[in-house]
Design brief:
This protein is α+β, with helices and mostly antiparallel strands. It folds into 4 domains: 87 residues, 3-Layer(aba) Sandwich (Rossmann fold); 60 residues, ATP-grasp fold, A domain (Dna Ligase, domain 1, 2-Layer Sandwich); 139 residues, D-amino Acid Aminotransferase, Chain A, domain 1 (2-Layer Sandwich), CATH 3.30.470; 74 residues, D-amino Acid Aminotransferase, Chain A, domain 1 (2-Layer Sandwich), CATH 3.30.470.20. It is built from 13 helices and 23 strands. Strands 10, 11, 12, 13, 14, 15, 16, 17, 20 and 22 form a 10-stranded antiparallel beta sheet that branches. A 5-stranded parallel beta sheet has the order 3-2-1-4-5, sandwiched between helices. About 2% of the residues have low confidence.
Length: 417
């Protein structure tokens, strides 16, 4: 294997939001520079990256310029165009990681769920629905309530519409306004996520990692527990308040998911933990699959660093952002070992009208000795917009105490009117 040298390569990223910002912060100590493509001038990543190309995520000229200026390409948003990335990769001889084929599969939630199901990975029962009649027929099988999802474009709860009764079929599909699918409503104990990463073949394993000379290096972080309100992530508690066996099973399922995906990089794998049920409570798919009645189901996958992995910046030996940079550049992966229990807490926009973003009370927040603040540099605050986050490290506190502390500390800061 060719020896790596410094200064390192230039990585081109489609997307320059907060994920791009934190990727640039992680890349700099490694001697790796980033150029980002984003339609918003002075996007959040621009102050900390080498340069920004202002253009749409799927604009051919802008993506071509990005490829000309980079040694490898990646993306921090699923709105990237996989077909365009494939053409650019072939034209300029530049790698795209993760693979555009993986991006294409994940962009369509129905295709994603079918791929997982075909691989024997446990998922909630689901159906494709193209009409109110098909939705009503699916509800007869899956029961109500259920969750209707836009197949493409939804994130942070957007594109997800709960349905309580088959009489709502027309209204719900009108709200989706596009191709749709429906899933059973999972009665879960908690929502979990595992941050996984795929690296280059042939690197020596360390920690919770597996590889051989011919296989991709795979690593997973300990499972975190996610707390959502209005389908927006509020907090991640690490390690999850589940049994050790459940956390191990979550990591095992995440590794199965990573085996299915093509391309190097970090993946956010969202999961449900639910109680085991009797055969009469299981769907026909679950009864035919010996693992379908288990505690862990895969909800969705993100082919990039994920909000539920922000805790890794302070809470793990190597952050998800450093891991993504290492992976896409073909470098050995870092350690995923947990340093100590940690809680991350999102700072979301309040319910008032959109306005210039000014956060007050920061001095009081930073006076807490175990708090680490991350501001995303967005100039406008809007309701429920992700403006930043902070982590609270464990010290001698339990995760329950950490979570309570994080909620208390969040009240230290507020957006000015």
């Amino acid at each position: 294997m060719k020896t790596k040298t410094l200064p390192g390569p230039v990585v081109g990223i489609v997307g320059g939001g907060q994920l791009g910002r934190m990727l640039a912060e992680a890349a700099a100590p490694l001697g790796i520079e980033l150029v980002v493509l984003d339609p918003t001038p002075d996007c959040p990543a621009s102050p900390v990256c080498r340069d920004q190309i202002v253009g749409a995520f799927d604009d051919p000229d802008s993506v071509h310029e990005l490829a000309e200026r980079a040694d490898t390409l990646t993306f921090e948003i699923e709105l990237a165009d996989p077909d365009l990335l494939e053409r650019v990769s072939e034209k300029f001889g530049v790698e795209v990681q993760p693979s555009p084929a993986t991006l294409r599969m994940i962009q369509d939630k129905l295709v994603q769920k079918r791929a997982l199901q075909d691989a024997g990975i446990p998922v909630p029962a689901f159906r494709a629905v193209d009409s109110p009649e098909e939705l009503r027929a699916a509800l007869d099988e899956l029961g109500t309530p259920a969750m209707v999802k836009a197949r493409e474009g939804g994130y942070d709860g957007r594109g997800n519409v709960p349905i309580e009764d088959s009489d709502e079929a027309e209204k719900v599909l009108e709200e989706i306004a596009g191709r749709a699918m429906v899933e059973e409503m999972v009665d879960f104990e908690r929502e979990l996520s595992v941050i996984g990463v795929k690296g280059s073949a042939g690197h020596s394993p360390a920690g919770d990692r597996t590889s051989s000379d011919k296989e991709d290096e795979i690593a997973t972080y300990v499972a975190g527990e996610n707390v959502h309100e209005e389908e927006i992530l509020r907090e991640t508690v690490v390690p999850a308040r589940a049994s050790g066996a459940v956390r191990e099973r979550a990591q095992a399922v995440a590794r199965e998911v990573l085996d299915l995906l093509e391309g190097r990089g970090v993946y956010g794998i969202e999961l449900f933990e639910r109680e085991e049920r009797s055969p009469s409570e299981c769907s026909s798919e679950e009864r035919s699959d010996s693992r379908g009645n288990g505690k862990i189901l895969v909800n969705e996958i993100a082919p990039r660093p994920h909000n539920s992995g922000h805790w890794t910046i302070e809470g793990a030996r190597s952050s998800q952002f450093e891991q993504h940079v290492r992976a896409v550049c073909g470098l050995p992966l870092g350690s995923t070992e947990l340093r100590e229990p940690v809680v991350s807490k999102n700072i979301l926009g309040d319910e008032r009208d959109s306005r210039k973003a000014t956060l007050s009370g920061v001095d009081r927040l930073l006076a807490e000795p175990l708090v680490h603040l991350h501001w995303y540099g967005k100039r406008e605050v809007r309701p429920l917009r992700k403006m930043g986050h902070f982590t609270v490290l464990g010290g001698d506190q339990s995760v329950e105490e950490l979570l309570e502390s994080a909620r208390t500390y969040r009240r230290h800061v507020e957006f000015e009117p």
